[in-house]
Request: fold
Amino acid sequence: MRLSSLVGQWNVYSTGIVTLLVLLVTYSITSRVEPEIHPMLLARQGHGSPVRQEGESPIYRSNAAPHSMPLNSGLSVKEPGASKWSQGRDGDLRDVWRKAISGSSEGDGVKGKGRILTVLGREKVIEHKLEDVTRQINLVGQYISSQGGKKVAIYLPNSVEYIATLFACSFYNITAILLPYDRSDASIISMLQQSGADTVITCPGTFPFDSVVKSYPALRQLIWVVDEGSKHLDWNEVPKGMGGKVNVSTWQDILNDQPQTAGTELPSADTQVAAPDVVMFWVSKNDSVEEMVRFTQGNLVSAISAQLVAIPTKERFSPADLFLPAAPLSSSYTLVLTLVAIYNNASVAFNSVAGASPDLTLATQGVSPTIIVTTPETLSKTHAETKGMITSALSSLSHWIQTRSLVQNGVMPVASFLASYNDSLYPRLGTEPGKLRLVYVAHPADGNNSPLLSELTLSDLRIFTRARIIYALSAAPCAGAVAQTQFHDYRVSGNGKGSHFGPPVSSTEILLRDTGSYKITDENYTGAVVVRGPAIVGGEATLGLVATIRDDNTISVI
Ligand SMILES: *[C@@H]1O[C@H](CO)[C@@H](O)[C@H](O)[C@H]1NC(C)=O
Ligand SMILES: *[C@@H]1O[C@H](CO)[C@@H](O)[C@H](O)[C@H]1NC(C)=O
Ligand SMILES: *[C@@H]1O[C@H](CO)[C@@H](O)[C@H](O)[C@H]1NC(C)=O
Ligand SMILES: *[C@@H]1O[C@H](CO)[C@@H](O)[C@H](O)[C@H]1NC(C)=O
Ligand SMILES: *[C@@H]1O[C@H](CO)[C@@H](O)[C@H](O)[C@H]1NC(C)=O
Ligand SMILES: *[C@@H]1O[C@H](CO)[C@@H](O)[C@H](O)[C@H]1NC(C)=O
Reply:
């Protein structure tokens, strides 16, 4: 069929194209290309401890974290004037924001200063000055404290208000409670009860105010984040008999009731006072249970520090990058990477539809992100749709050549005539396709319904998105990632159906333990994953996941 349709459409251009193709194929097969990373570094991606306990595998660590050294625990923040050789402190989220605004001066664009953008649809993008975000952090933090708020639940889509509230909580000694967005009324009430929130920050239309007031009498304060269109409405009008005990205000009023000059200075850096915990909820994939997880600031900064060093130095997030969280900020992996971007002066764009829909084109509209975090569901859908369109002989050949470049040569395919041949088949990501360079995606450890992305699927996606992909394993008690694949790992082993999560990151170590019918032997390390380290709540956790250590010391689920 395919051949006959090809013959039917044959003309002089086809002859030219095919001749070129044959030449290029010959060239790409005969020419030697240096791989982007030495194959030895991919053949042994982590290292096990020299001894193992009975019923346990050796303890595995990333190559960047020798067993003789402590795991990566924080940002190593040095006070100004401290000696270059002094040991910095681990720091907390306040240091992330202080770093972002350091060096940012008024007026002309200072190099090394990130921007924060809000994407409102395809046409409209609003830029927020970092000083304005600092003002929001101060005024909202002061307001909540003055009203006696101690535990603030954030029920918002990805937005600048979301991240500003998180920082406000750290600066003003308030526990931030990050609620997953778009949940049923019953789950919202259950999460408020579990966490004991006294204040909620949310937007009208999505938060079931009346039923929360009825079923959750501990609520004392509610702050609406209203969008431009509904600013004129008076949200202070609380229905009589309903919210009598709840003080209602709006984000905009809190900012506008203060003079422009108020709240421009962050509270002074007092390193003695520990910043409060951050509460998150892990939604188990059968979608019925929200498990509450209380991260310390130490858990979060250690996860941030591990991500800072997880990719090669010259590929790190920089002021030239535009980072877009295309997954909900209520998941710790997305949140940690967003904080990494802010810490490294990258620009960050927030789009409220990101995470709500599994459409990557929609989530990246309006801007041209260079780095995104997304979900396995989204990538799986993108893969199925794009793969389905690669049907013609020429596009299949082009795909084969690009796969060969990745898998055999270990290099990302260059945008050659062939690689760009029928790019119209590929998803359009961002306003200027071709800018995207890195995609992060995390598989949830208990994700029964979350699709596992195979090595072959990831290889295809590298071609479709023209970006590198880092595939991570995430778990409820772990801030950020338990383990994740290497930046330059494009290998596809065997039939490509398998998948792995690379070695542990530098803030975690992993071992496998006997479980059920799986027994650890000298020949085969297969068992329940136990993860330890400063990024783990309580320092150690057993994940409900059976995995094995492959020959290349990467973690692979059974
Ligand atoms: C971010 O900006 C600060 C202050 O300008 C600078 O010291 C730092 O090196 C920058 N970091 C990166 C990763 O560019
Ligand atoms: C911070 O809040 C906690 C609990 O609300 C309280 O115990 C602690 O004393 C507060 N710390 C400071 C420095 O106010
Ligand atoms: C509401 O705000 C007023 C004025 O700030 C305050 O006096 C009152 O105690 C608050 N009520 C609650 C339930 O927090
Ligand atoms: C979902 O998972 C929880 C805990 O793993 C379990 O208790 C519950 O029965 C499950 N619900 C469904 C509908 O499978
Ligand atoms: C290239 O893509 C366009 C748009 O999807 C399609 O109409 C055309 O048939 C494709 N050409 C080949 C040779 O696959
Ligand atoms: C180890 O055992 C598991 C489960 O029985 C199996 O899937 C895996 O292939 C084995 N690995 C090796 C290296 O034999």
